[in-house]
Every structure is written in structure tokens, then in C-alpha cells.
User: Fold these one by one.
Assistant:
Number 1:
Amino acid sequence: MSLLEIQDLRVHLRTQGGTARAVDGVDFRLEEGEAVGLVGESGSGKTILALSILGLLPQGSGTILPEGSIRFRGEELVGMDRNRLREIRGGEVAMVFQEPMTSLNPVFTVGSQIQEAVELHRPLGRGAAQAETLRLLQEVGIPDAGARAASYPHQLSGGMRQRAMIAMALAGEPSLLVADESTTALDVTIQAQILKLLKSVQTRLGMGLLLISHDLSVVSRVCDRILILYGGRVVESGPTREILEAPKHPYTRGLLGSRLSIDDRRRTLRPIPGEVPEATDWPPGCKFHPRCQEVLDRCHREEPNLLPMAGSQGAVEARSGVPGTGREARCWLLVEEEVEP
Amino acid sequence: MGSRVRFVLPGLPHLFRGRVLEGGVALFLWLGLLALSGLRMDRVLQAPSGDIGDWVALLTLLGVLAGVWIWSAKDEVGGGGGAPGGSVGSRGVSVEGWRVFRKDPMAMAGLGIVLAFYLAMLLAPFLAPFEPEARGAFEVGGDMALRLAAPSSTHLMGTDQYSQDVLSRILYGARISLTVGLLAVGLSLTIGVFLGAIAGYLGGRIDTSIMRFVDMVMAFPRLVLLLAIVALFQPSILVIVLALAFTQWPFTTRMVRGEILALKGREFSEAAHALGFSRRRILFMHLLPNAMGPVIVVATLGIGNIILLEAGLSFLGLGVRASTPSWGFMLFEGWDYMMDAWWVAAFPGLAIVLVVLAFNLVGDGLRDALDPRQREGRSQ
């Protein structure tokens, strides 16, 4: 049984411009203690995907229909009873958000906020919870934890606040941590520290980690495996090294081409032309074809399936052999290659 | 030698060390109250056998004296001259706000006036030179000799048409005017904050029904609605308080709803959800404390407004009818003698103006002090 298993997840939002297919049939698995990266541009559906795991999709006017299946240790989360879902949130699946500046409540001290989360999820007395709060602050590398616990959020720097947010997420001893663009708002140096912290905490506690980012280089530093998301679908997946060294999908190649590199100064930036279309009107056929530079006739008409790649050396695929963990890509080029030569 | 002074004259050492405000207030309270109990010793000693008002006055007197003395003794021992709350590391929102507030002279003056009025109200039995019902006949022995007497050294604010001392009646009358304000605002806050929070947070049909009801109440001219309610029932204190609260809560509801609407979209609210907190807990424990700043401001301004409304109702003859009337009623009664004896109406009117003005000053000061944008700039 996987820690997290998502099958054919679809999230459709009713907006004024029509029904937006934000997540449009995503499958993947995340094993215990595994770090998986989810990469895509803004509008690719990655945040909606993350929110639907915790059942946090905005309710109300713009009704959202999550369909498909999200199983956490075999337990179905879609349509789950609200009370049980609340136990899972923070207790077994925790989330770290993007904006450390606004994710903490400005009127309470950092310590009291962490302690509140500890007391919610663990049967500890007041004193023990307080000790645990200090331990968590030390765990996430906050120096002088006692004094910092008594600080208000506005007295801390962005990096410190994000560390505090991570401490709060760890308060319930979760087995899966979802980090949604958690380092995007930080300086690069701080970003590196926080990534290192996430990685070390993840290995030490044996947690699963789902790291969501638009930045391939951020994800590749921490994750064992990467999923590339485009148009609410996985377009390529595989072990980090293989994705970086031998990208199969033109979109992945585009993402790699638009990265800056210090090592290779002569390399010019090659951004992907155009932008992600509105989720209300995806083009027919392959969703990427209007921006693709290697487009075929077929791409205009039919959308390809996720194709398993032969000869993959991925460690994870060897472990299970189940779909959604190995090396896969969604592109007609790969089919043509096999047929033509 | 200087260290002993603080036990005899609390506040004096502070005065000399440049903390004029604290020292001055403490010294003034200490000397003033001691002088009061000395001058009215008989009245103070009678208090234990008196009514509730006397008891309250006695406890207030002893409480304030003890408070000043303990503050002086403790502050000196612990401090050695540093400003209170001087630890830089953990300065709370309220402490931060207070620092802004105390730099605002108008707001501090307002606060001083408000506190002085409430203290005078509590100490009325000792402060008032006469019983509020006592007719001038008592004193001189002549029938209506002191009817509408001009202000003099015996009657600082003169007497009214029944030869009653105006100053004493103002002091006793404060009980109604000032408590009605507090009670009505307290009640309207409770209702308003609760309904506003629920409407803003839950939205949808609940929001719509609450807010349409709010609109309905607000659609009536306030004074007309008040007159209708009071005319329907006998105007007792309870009815007046309920009627005032009923016309006040929609303003609070509307404001709290707006605050909560803005807050629930903030990331920390989403983060609290992701941590597994219940919706009730998020609303009342996480969001509402963030909305309290503006609520406090509106409440403060509301007290002044309500005191004014109560005075207006009394002036129209629909106020509380008690043995000691409220200021508004005194104004109403004094109206007839305005040409011959201005003091009968002028002093109650002045009291109303002062208190309402003071509450508005405090409210404005609080608005500045609790404004998060100002605070944000200051903390950097």
C-alpha cells in the first residue's frame, strides 16, 4: 500500500468563463518516506492538486467537483467525513504554504501557535506541549528557541517565519508533508537553507514529501522523483536524474532550456514561447501543441496517453512496477520514434 | 531617604525622575482620596450601613488607594527607573498600541476625563456635598428659600427648582447615564460581533438573512425606532438599555462581517485549516482576535453616542424615571428655567458634552494606535 495514491483525479471549477478543468486526470503514487517533486508553470493545476489532497478546495459559489480517488494509506480522502478529514489534516498530512509573511497569525506569538497545533494533535499536557514546542523550534534550526517562541510573527525574518511554519506542520508528526511553493517567496540563500531543512527533516523523520514548485532546479535538489504537470495532467515522470539528463517531453526540455546556469555561461536562455492557456478552453489534441516546437499533425487531433519508457533504470519503478511510479511521458514523438526508424 | 518617600507619597519619586504622567496621577489620586476621606470621615464611616451605592463607593475608595500604594511600592522595587514593559524581545500588539496611544495628548486627555467621570460616579456618595434628594430647606430652615439659587460656595453649581443641589444630582445622575452607555454597548457588541462573525465566515444564505435583517433595522431612523420601542414599554433602565443595544448592534455586525470576510481569505486562515483546526475554532480563536482592533474603536465611539442618545430620549421625556434622574432628564427639567437659572440645565449639558467628547477622543486615539499599518511601519 502506498502512502499516497492518486488515481484519475479531476478537479473542475465552475467559473464565469465556463468550466475550468484545473486538474484533468492525474495519476501518481508516493511511497512512504519518498520525496516527490511536482513541477509546472502557474496555471498547470499544481496548487489545486495540493489543496485537493487535504480537502481544502474552496467551497461555495465556484463549486468544485473533485472526482477520482485520493487514497492515503488506503483510506479514501475524496468525499471523506469532515471530522475524520480534520484529524488527517495536520495530524497525518501537513502542508507548508507559499507565503511565510502571511501564513502566521499576526496577533499571537509564534510559540503559542505551534503549541496550539501540538495540543490539537497529540495527547500532551500543557507543560509537555510547551517542551515539545521548543524542541520543534530547535528541530527546524531556530536559534534561541525560547526567545523566538515568545516573538510575534512580525518580529521574525521571512526565513525564520518559514522555519516556524515548518515546525508547525511537524507538530502533529505527519507522515506526509506537502510543501506548496514553500521557498518561492524567499531569497535564494534562504531558499537553499529551507530546502536543506526540508530534506533533512524528511529523511530524519521518514516522512513522505510532496514538493510543489515551478522551479525545476529547486525540486531536483530535494526529490527522488519528479512529475511534470501541464494543463492539469502529468506529461512526464521519472527519477530526478533521468528527467534532468534525458527529458522525453518537449515541455520538459523547454523547462530545462529556460533555466539559468552558472556553469555554462555561453548557453542562451530558451524560454518556452506563449503561455499556459486558460483552463476553461484547452486546445484539442495535445494540450501543449500550440507552444510545442516539434509539433506533429497528430498532436492537433489526439491527445497522447502516458507511455511507459522502455529501458528505464529508475529505482522506484524497479521497486513496484506499478503505473504512476516509473518513467513515463505523454507525447506522440515517442510513438513516432518507435514506429519510423 | 528617598526610598521611604514612596510609601508615604506614592508617585512623588516618579515625578522627580521625569515620569510626570504616572507620578502625577498617582500622587493626585493618593492625596485627593486621602483628603476626601478626611473631609467626609463621617460619611465614609457610615458607608458600611448604607446601600449598595455606599458599599461600592467604599470599596472603590479603598481599592484605588491600595492600588496606588502597591503600584508605587512594587514599581520602585522592581524597576530602578526603566520604562514599564521594557523587555524588547516580546512586545505584544496591545503594548505596542499603548505606546502609540500614550504619545497622543488628545487621546490621553480623553482617557483621563472618562476615567475621572467613572471614578466620580463610583465615589458619588462621598463626593456629593448633599444627598441628591435633599432639598435646600434642610440647610437654611426656610421653605423654598434656596429654589434656583445661583452657584455659590455652598452650592457650586447652584440649585434647581426643588432647591436640590445640582452638583450632587449630576454626580448621582452619572450612574444612569454612564452605566447605560456601558451596558448597551456591551450588549450590542456581544450580539453584533457574534452575528457579524458568523455572517462573514459562513456566507451564503446565513449571511444573506443576517445582513438583510441588519439592513432592515438600519433602514429606520434611529431616534424614531427608539421612541417607538420605549413608548411601547414602560421606560425602565432595562428597556432603555435593550432598546439602545437593539439599535446599535447592526453597526457592529456590519463592521465585523467586513473584517472577517477580509481575514478569511488570508493565508494564515488557510494554514489553520490545513493544520486541522475546526471551523469554529478558526473563526473565534484565530480570526476574531484579528478583528478586535476596529471593534474596540467602534465600541468606544459607540459609548459616547449612546450616552448622547439616552440623554436625547430623557430630554424628550422618554428616559428612565428614577428618583435620581439621568443627565438628559435634568436637562429636560432645567429647560423651563433656562432664562432665569441657566445653571440648572447648563451643568448637566456640560457633563454630557464632556463625556461624549472624551469618549470620541479616546476612540480616535485607539483608531490610530490599533491601526495595523501604523504598527507595521513602527516595528521595522
Number 2:
Amino acid sequence: MKDKFLTGGWQTLLYKEVLRFWKVAGQTVGAPILTSVLYMLIFGHVMADHVKVYDTVSYTAFLVPGLVMMSVLQNAFANSSSSMVQSKVMGNLVFLLLTPLSHWHWFIAYVGSSVLRGLAVGLGVLVVTSLYGQPGLLHPLWALAFAVLGAALLGSLGLIAGLWADKFDQMAVFQNFVIMPMTFLSGVFYSIHSLPPFWQTISHLNPFFYMIDGFRYGFFGVSDISPWISLAMVAAAWLAVSATALHLLKIGYKIRH
Amino acid sequence: MPAVSFQSVSKHYPSRGTGSAVQALDQVSFDIEQGEFFGLLGPNGAGKTSLISILAGLSRASAGSVKVHGHDVYTDYAQARRLLGVVPQELVFDPFFTVRESLRIQSGYFGIRNNGAWIDELLECLGLTDKAGANMRQLSGGMKRRVLVAQALVHKPPVIVLDEPTAGVDVELRQTLWQFIARLNREGSTVLLTTHYLEEAEALCGRIAMLKQGRMVALASCSDLLKNATSNVLRFKLDRELPPALAAKARVTGRVVQFPAHDALEIEQYLAAVREAGLAVEDVEIRKADLEDVFLEVMACQAERQPLKGQS
């Protein structure tokens, strides 16, 4: 560890948060990649001949960006939420509470590290799953924009969940009953055009849908709706969630009494 | 300018469910001058940790203000926290990091780089040099306590706050810790100490404040508190239990009985009462009151709820 990485308060917190997940990279990066490979093997093999999404794209190739983005989102959420709730439960959050760091510093560091973990896992999933189906990458900047913005949104949401939860059980509730359903109902494994009209309408209320669809546009140049609309929706959701997270940090919600 | 200033600090916790609201602090006011070694004493639940939590920014006062070197801990929290080094009461640690990593990270939070020389000195002075590369999980409780102290001091704060730092630790750590803290105090650091070990407070602190049920009940120099103590202490051992009427006036620890006694007549009366009860007395001694006696006396006379002010 070099002191040059520790030049300022928020940089140190960002560095510490990255170091925290990197020290257990097998669990925080390796395991999600393996999970995605299993999804690819099972869904890609079973459904490849039964599902047609876009005319020019195989189902296996269609699946790759969805799995990549799902991994980015889930791991970005897991990073900030688990770090916060773990520090609260173990009591070591006090080391941070005693410092002069502002709520902005906390936000940048926690969300920044979540984005980095999300991108690290996403890159790993992309590399491995691409061995099964090459999706192409027609608009890399679109893909990158949605990956970064989506990870920041979920990192901010994870921060809120971590502040709210007093124990790991509560965090599991948030993860299992909010994050997982919204992820799976976002079009990772299908195009929403294959759904009945009612469920298409419901899908449009799910911000995860716009993240997945916009990210997929970066690969294929086609999407269920315009990437600009998706970008606007994701940016609006990120701003709302970030504002909430910043407010909670500023008032010391459940961390200062 | 005082190092720390508490002005009319109150803290109440709202009621939960059917429970009643708790008044943890009630209009507490006092200053700690720069360079002082200041003791904050009180029984469990007196409000010591609440007061320190407000000072450290872990909790917000319901009313009043707290300043560190003139910087309000709420409106100017960044500057106030730079001046404070707080050793928390709970034995907490981050299991992901080594001792040296923990210290470098804590230093970095304060924007301090290239702090290796001071970190090495802290490790040396606190007997942690050979544990610098060890993960925090591998350390014993005493070693973890030393790291807590080092983390509080890593940014060289001029005001050091020690919240029961020697609770449950061995004699060696106490010696090491107090030698080091006394050195920092001689070099100009202000020290605020809370402890249940009153002999430590008596040996180290220049001035002492006592809290009971959220109110300040004494504030004086340690020597004034001892000088103003109203009694000497009659101490002896008994072969059997003291009768309830006498026990109510005494401090009893196992076989050892101690009575506060103002004069020779009172001493004779206590001894006579014990003889009349048919008890055998041994190892009789009369000694000057120590801080523990003063503490008990102050806590006992709290029915009046008037602060006992000293001369300083």
C-alpha cells in the first residue's frame, strides 16, 4: 500500500472500500462470474432453440449483455450495502464517523467503489460469457454509459439499504424482495416484446428494464425502446436515489444519534 | 481559549413504545483548558459517554453547544474533528486490514500522507511494532485496545479523549498507555479521561468533573476535592456480617468495612457499636479519604441536586 493513494480523505475512503472487496476478490468478483456462467450454460443451452428475440441476434448472444448488466447491478448494490451494514453491525463505522469527511465524501467513496466492483465483475462476466456467444459491441460508449450509470444507481441504492438495515436479515429482505425481482423482471432473459401487453406496461415501470435495454443497445444497435429514453429514465432515477442517499448521510440517519 | 467547552448541554432520548423519555444530560456546562488532564467521572448511566459522543460528533445535543478550540462540533464539525482524537469505549476493529493498514487508512481520512514516521513511533510506544503486519482479527483484546489508541492519535490531535480506555485490560497495557498519554500531556496535549478506576483518575487528572443522572454534581481540582472531603475513613476487617443498621452507613467489600468518620468521637462510636454486635474486629486503620471516598460521598449527597463547586 502506497501513501500516494491516500492523499485526501475521500480518496482514502474510496481506496479502503476498493481494498475491502479486492482482498476477498474470490468471493466478491469470482463467485458472481461463476454464477453468470452457470446462467449462460443453463438458459443458453435450454432456451437457445426456443426463443427468438431480434432477427439478427442469437438467443445466446442476446443473453450475454443481460447477464453482464445484471452482474454489474447486483454487485454494485452488494458492495455499498454490505460494507455499510457490516461496519454498523461490527461497530467499526465509528472510525469513519470520527473523521472530518463530509456526506459528499462518503457518497463519492461508497458509490465510486460500488461502480468499480460492478464494472470489474461485469468485465469478467463479459469475457467469460462471450466464449459462448459473441454479442458484438456496436456502440461501446452507450454500453459504458449505461454500465456506469446503472452501477452508480445501484451503489446509491445499496448505500440507502445499508443505512436503513440494522442487521443482515433486513439486508437480505431488501436484496431478495426488491433487487432480485426487479432484476429478473427487467428483460435479462427475454425481450419485453415477447410479454403480454399488461406485463409490458409493468416492465416500463421498472428502472432496471431501461438499464438492461440501454446496455443491450450498446451491443446490438437495437433495443426495445430508444436508448435516449432509457438514458433519461436511468439518469432521473439515479438523481432521485442519490439525492435521498446524500440526505440520509447528511442527517446521519441511523448512524449518528 | 479553552480546549473544550461544554455550554448548557442537554440530551434527551425520546420514549420508545410505552417507555418514558430519557434525560441523559441536563444543562451540563464546563470548560477544559488547553494542556489539562481532565477526568470525567460518574456511575454507569451518568451521561459520560453521551457527553463524549456529542463532543465527538457521534450524537447531537438536544440543546446547548460544544466547542473544540472554539470550533462548534456541529456547525464547524470538520475542523473540530481534526482537533480531536477519540478512543471509543467498545473494542471495535475492521477485520479486513492489518494494524499498519488500519493506521494508514485512519491517517488518510484526515488528509495526512507520508505519516509513516509517526505511525512507527505510535507502534513502538504502544508495543505494537511486531504486530504491524498482523491482521486485526489475529490480535488479542489488549492488543486491539492498543490499536484503538493508536488510531485515535494517528493524526496528532491536540485534544485526546479516552472513554474508559483501560476497561478490562491488563496491568502492562495500563502502564504502557498511561506513560505514553502522560508524555503527550506533558508535550501540550489536552486529555479528557472517563474511567471507573478512580485511583487512575486520582493519579493522572488535574481537575475532575462528576456526573450523576445527567447533571454535573462536582467540578474541582483533584487536590481540592480530596482536601474538601468531609471525613477520614475508619477501615477494619470483620469475622462476620455487619448488622443492617450499621451496614447502611458503611462501604463493605467482602470482609473489609469502611466508615466515613469526621472525628475521634465518631470513630469510637462505630467501634463500640461493632463490639456491642458481638463482632471481632481486626486490622483496624484510620486513613485519609481518597478519590473513591469523595466520589461515593458526592454521589450520596446528590439528593440536594446542587453542583459541588471547587475553587478552580
